[in-house]
Amino acid sequence: MSEIRAITLFVRAATLGSLRRAAVDQGVSPQAASHAVMQLEKELGVRLFHRTTRKLSLTEEGLRLFDSVKPALAILSSALAEARRSKEDVGGLLRVSAPRALGLPVLWPFFEQFQQRYPNVQLEVQFNDQFTDLVTERADVGFRAGPPPSGGSIARRLLPIQLIVCASPEYIERNGAPRTIEELAQHRCTGFRRANTGKLAQWPFRIGDEIFYRDVPPAICVNDTDMETQAVLSGLGIGQLGSFNATAHIRSGRLVPLLTQHVVEHGAIYIYYGHRTEQSLRARTFIDFMIERMADNRNFFLEPPELRAARPPQRNRAVSSRRKSGAA
C-alpha cells in the first residue's frame, strides 16, 4: 500500500503544483509527502520533479509516469469508493447456497420477504446437495441441513431436524398403522435415495438411549424430499420425513405421526458465513434477517408434548370386519 500512497501523492502534487498542497489533500504531513515521493524516485531510479523553493514541475520521466498512472489511479479510487459504499448500502449482488430439500418448505418464503423488503439486493440462489465452500464458490452465505459445517466458516444453528414416521389418514384407514418398528415390514413404505451418493437412506430410530438404523424396503423411491412428502400425503405409503416437511401437515391433520417414541433428532439446519467484519452490509442484513425469522421457529418442528400426545391410530373397524369376513 506504500507504493500506492506514494503514487497518489505524486499525482496530487503534479496536479496541484505543490507537495505541501498534496500533503494537506491526502491528510499527511509535508515531510511525509516529500519522503514518499523521494522514495518513489529512488525505487524508479529517475527524478520525477524539478524542485525550486517556489516551483514544482515535472521532469520528462515524471510527465510520462503521470500520463500513465493517472487513469489507472482514477479507476482504483473509484473501485475503492464502490467497495466502501457496499458496506453502507443494502444493495448489490448477494450469492446464497442451500440444499434443495430446504428450498420450498423452509427458505423460499423468507427469501421472498427479504426481496420485498430490500429490492435493491440481487439475490442469486444456488440450490444443490453438496456442501458449498463459500470461498471456492464465491458465495456470501450458505445453509446446511445435518451436521455443522466445517472449514473455517462461522455457523449458527437455526432449527432441529426431527425424523418422523408419518402416514396419511387415508392410508391408515385402508391399511391400519404399525405399532412397532417390526410391523413396518407389513406396510408399503417410501424411500429416499441420496442425490450425492445414490444410496438408499436407512431409517434411524431411537430405542432407549441409542439410535439404530434399519433398512426399510421401499414400495416407491424418490431422490427429492418434497416428492417423498407428496407420496406420503397421497396415501402411497408410510414415510420417515424431516420435521421441516412434516410439521405443518401433522398439525393440519393431513399427516398422522407414528411410532413417536422412536423419533430421532437428526442434525439441524445451519446458516454459515465468513467473518462478519469482512462482509458487506447486504450480507450482514440478510444473515440477521434470516436468523430473526428462522431461529427456533416452531413452525418447523414438533414440541415434546406434541410427540408424547400422539397415539397410534386404530385400524378402522369397518375395514377390519370386511377383512375378517373376506378371510372367512
UniProtKB/TrEMBL annotation:
Q: Where is the HTH lysR-type domain?
A: 1-59
Recorded hits in InterPro entries, A to Z, give: LysR-type_TF_proteobact-type (IPR058163), LysR_HTH_N (IPR000847), LysR_subst-bd (IPR005119), WH-like_DNA-bd_sf (IPR036388), WH_DNA-bd_sf (IPR036390)
Protein's UniProt keywords contain DNA-binding: yes
Keyword entries, A-Z: DNA-binding, Transcription, Transcription regulation
Is the Transcription keyword given for this protein?
yes
Which protein are we looking at?
LysR family transcriptional regulator
Recorded family membership: Belongs to the LysR transcriptional regulatory family.
Give the organism, scientific name.
Paraburkholderia ginsengiterrae
From the Swiss-Prot or TrEMBL record, what is one GO molecular function term? Answer: DNA binding
- Write one Pfam family the protein is assigned to: HTH_1
